[in-house]
Design brief:
One of its GO terms (cellular component) is extracellular region. It is found in: Secreted. This protein is of the alpha/beta class. Among the domains are: about 180 residues, Rossmann fold, CATH 3.40.50; about 180 residues, 3-Layer(aba) Sandwich (Rossmann fold), CATH 3.40.50.410. Helix content is about 35%, strand content about 20%. The chain contains 17 helices and 18 strands. It has a six-stranded mixed β-sheet with strand order 3-2-1-4-5-6, sandwiched between helices. A six-stranded mixed β-sheet has the order 15-14-13-16-17-18, with helices on both faces. β2 and β3 form a beta hairpin. α4 runs antiparallel to α5. The longest helix has about 35 residues. The N and C termini lie far apart (about 105 Å).
Length: about 550
């Protein structure tokens, strides 16, 4: 009972008593100061009609004990089952009568119990300024009271932790069949002051008399030893500890620790973020330098490329692996300098048919491309790789789709991603792509056929073919692709050591590379001929 005696929530429950008793006992309404209060009500099918009616009286009774007003307590109500419905938002009503009328008209949803979804809605929508919540800088307490009678059918711990991290204080009230573990996962610390469990809806009002006066505005920090490490703030719920800027409150509700800013902000670091006091800085891998923006690492910024990605969306890939493929594509985008003047990116998905997800000319930033990639929906069905190659050659690299004119000599690069054997012929259009001057890369996973990958890819295959045995380990291919699409400096004797970022284009760099390989092949042929001559001379002497 310790939690019940220390918490303001049962004072609210006191108001559930019969109206005559409430009015005789409650006396004048207690003014608690500004407060944003949202009730999250379970209206799943397990809540019987007479129990839902008790819940309705619960809400009406609470309202009659609150100092409701635009500058006092603002109240919002949402109900949930398999979906979430806003009964009325925080900013909808300033009169208690209007709130009661909306509650009395409430019709239960009578479906599942998606409590995590309801918490997410409360966090992202119900407590937003647009819905009537006061802005965070006003430091008005945000309180969510969750009333449920069953076990959630989705996860609640993670989303509840996010809500608490945003400053929402959560009370979890379980009735009858409620799962105690879930209540504890949802509620704010200390749990014995924020978790309540009653045997039935009828008994919920028995807690009321013990908490009269708990809503009154008292300077709780002046009474006793609050033990806050940094600062004590008095709220309607009692003393609450706050931490200095750059620190977070620990689960004991009193101690503070320095915040890891890299986990709490969208730092945008390309490689690694490191917290340093009240700030942070970005790091790059060994051998790469941090750019002027303080976030990205060096790239081939002079290497303008038109890049089209052909992604296998056949049924053999499976939905969960297709999500890994999209993540892999975005990791490729991360090392490209995406812009209308730099690298342009297009994406094509193929299965039994071909679909352009977005053409080369649509997006001008890496962020836009990555967002579009995440929105791509899995096609399933067959694997018509040849049809996809034809589509790429005939459409994807056209000026109408955003490719730059050939007169500008911007390299055209195609990257095919597949996990199996093609169901149509690829030879004609694979050859045609290379005849059209498209530099082709092939990435195979799982049951991809090496012969087909080599047929798709440009020469030498060692530089243009990559393979991973499964989707979970394919991230190791990124460095190979980075080294190919944005290669390092020259490759050996006879090759001028120039950074590809200084090359006029990747085509020039590739030409130099192929020239060096041809000279090496000629030297090997000459050496072989000389060895044959020596062998013949030795044979003659014998």
């Amino acid at each position: 009972m310790r939690g019940l005696l220390c918490s303001p929530l049962p004072m609210l429950l006191f108001l559930l008593q019969p109206w005559e008793t409430q009015l005789q006992f409650a006396g004048p309404r207690c003014r608690s100061g500004p407060l944003d209060l949202v009730f999250v009500i379970d209206s799943s099918r397990s809540v019987r009609p007479f129990e839902f009616e008790t819940m309705r009286q619960f809400l009406v009774g609470l309202l009659r004990g609150l100092d409701v007003g635009p500058d006092a307590t603002r109240v919002g109500v949402i109900q949930y089952s398999s979906q979430v419905q806003s009964v009325f938002p925080l900013g909808a009503f300033s009169r208690r009568e209007d709130m009661e009328r909306a509650i009395r008209a409430l019709v239960p949803l009578a479906q599942g119990t998606m409590t995590g979804l309801a918490i997410q809605y409360a966090m992202n929508v119900a407590f937003s300024v647009a819905e009537g919540a006061r802005p965070p800088q006003a430091r008005v307490p945000r309180i969510a009271v969750i009333v449920t009678d069953g076990r959630p059918q989705d996860r609640v711990a993670e989303v509840a932790a996010q809500a608490r991290a945003r400053g929402i204080e959560i009370y979890a009230v379980g009735v009858q069949r409620a799962d105690v573990g879930s209540l504890r996962a949802m509620a704010s610390p200390p749990l014995d002051e924020h978790v309540f469990l009653v045997e039935s809806f009828d008994l919920i009002q028995e807690f009321g008399l013990q908490f009269q006066g708990r809503l009154c505005a008292i300077d709780h920090c002046s009474f006793g030893n609050h033990s806050c490490q940094h600062e004590c703030v008095s709220t309607f719920a009692g003393p609450r500890c706050h931490c200095r800027e750059g620190h977070d409150l620990l689960p004991d509700g009193k101690s503070c620790e320095a915040r890891d800013l890299c986990n709490g902000v969208d730092h945008g670091c390309e490689f690694q973020c490191v917290s340093e006091g009240l700030s942070y800085r970005c790091l790059c891998p060994e051998g790469q330098q941090l750019q002027a923006d303080g976030k990205s690492c060096n790239r081939c910024r002079e290497g303008h490329v038109d890049l089209v990605l052909l992604v296998d969306g056949s049924k053999s890939v499976r939905p969960q692996n297709f999500e890994l493929v999209k993540r892999f594509v975005n990791q490729i985008v991360d090392f490209l300098d995406v812009s209308p003047e730099g690298t342009r990116v297009g994406l094509v998905q193929f299965s039994s048919r071909v679909r352009t997800e977005f053409p080369l000319g649509r997006y001008g930033t890496a962020a836009e491309v990555k967002q579009a990639v995440l929105a791509v929906e899995y096609m399933e069905r067959g694997t018509m790789t040849g049809l996809a190659l034809r589509h790429m050659v005939e459409h994807s690299f056209s000026e109408a789709q955003g490719a730059r004119p050939r007169a500008l000599n911007v390299p055209r690069v195609g990257l095919v991603f597949t996990d199996g054997r093609s169901q149509d012929d690829i030879s004609v259009w694979a050859a045609r792509a290379k005849e059209e001057g498209i530099v082709m890369y092939a990435v195979g996973v799982g049951k991809a056929v090496e012969e087909e990958l080599r047929q798709i890819a440009s020469e030498p295959a060692e530089l243009h073919v990559s393979y991973s045995p499964d989707f979970g380990t394919m991230t190791h291919l990124l460095e190979n692709l980075r080294g190919s699409i944005c290669p390092e400096e020259g490759i050996g004797p006879g090759t001028e050591l120039r950074s590809p970022c200084e090359c006029e284009s990747l085509v020039e760099f590739q030409g130099r590379t192929l020239g060096a390989l041809e000279r090496l092949t000629q030297n090997l042929a000459q050496l072989t001929a000389r060895l044959e001559d020596l062998e013949n001379q030795l044979a003659t002497q014998k």
